Amino acid sequence: MRTSNPTLNDRVFENSRTGVAADGVMTLNGTVIKTAVLTLLLVTAASWSWKLALSGNPPAWFGSALTFGWLVPLATALIIAFVPKTAPALAPVYALGKGIIVGIISAMYETQFGGIVLTAVMLTCGILFALLGAYMTGFIKATENFKLGIFAATGGIALFYLVAWVLGMFGIQIPGLFGNGWVGIAFSGFVVVIAALNLVLDFDFIENGCSVAAPKHMEWYAAFGLLVTLVWLYLEILRLLSKLRSRD
Questions:
Q1: 3-class SS at 176?
Q2: Are 220 and 91 in contact (CB under 8 A)?
Q3: What's the CA gap between 44 and 136, in Å, rounded?
């Protein structure tokens, strides 16, 4: 079984068998609690950087905080992805660092489009609970073909963003897709859909982990992976809304 979220891959269960008896096993309630803790940390950090960014006069050390916000989430995410046992210690660090960046990005969008952040938050929460309900009732099933399709789409988007970033370093811009024209809006809408469907795969990963009695630290690992998807979805919704608002 697969998941397109690189942090939530079923193969990690096979690599985390040692120490199960000593540490306990993964449970749904435990994963929910860990997810809530990481979300709270991210929101707290985002609120802090949001207020500083909108203050108009951030302190001198705010620049160092920005560096922390960019580098620490990247480093911790890579470590957690390759060494899941580090998730209990590093997932909270990731949430704090990522929260700083999310707060700053949100403040930038809010300054330009008043009220856009609240709308994006509400849509993200609505999509999360709607898909969770659809998954729990069996309306949406994470079949093997479904997983392969989302995996391919997510990989393609990641590769496209990487190429666009590299080209941007040389001053080369990809026309249309990042603009507020209908092509750009359609592209952002497609990315939002793929990001949202990744939540289904995350739910499936958590269910599988609980069913096979994965080690206790996998609760933090699963919560971390779910947070990665939620942040991605939120930022893509912000991007889509900004394109729609800019056409008004």
A1: coil
A2: yes
A3: 30
Asked if 47 and 103 touch (Cβ cutoff 8 Å), the reply is: yes
Give the global pTM: 0.87
User: Would you say 227 and 99 are in contact if contact means Cβ atoms under 8 Å apart?
Assistant: no
- Is residue 100 a contact partner of residue 65, using CB atoms and an 8 Å limit? yes
Question: Which residues lie across from 215 on neighbouring strands?
Answer: 25
The share of the chain scoring above pLDDT 70, in percent, equals 85
Assign residue 215 a region (left: φ > 0; alpha: ψ between -120 and 50; beta: otherwise). beta
Q: What are phi and psi of 235, to 5 degrees?
A: -65, -35
Euclidean distance between CA atoms 15 and 29, whole angstroms: 23
| 25 strand-pairing partners | 215
- Residue 35 carries which side chain, given as an amino acid letter? T
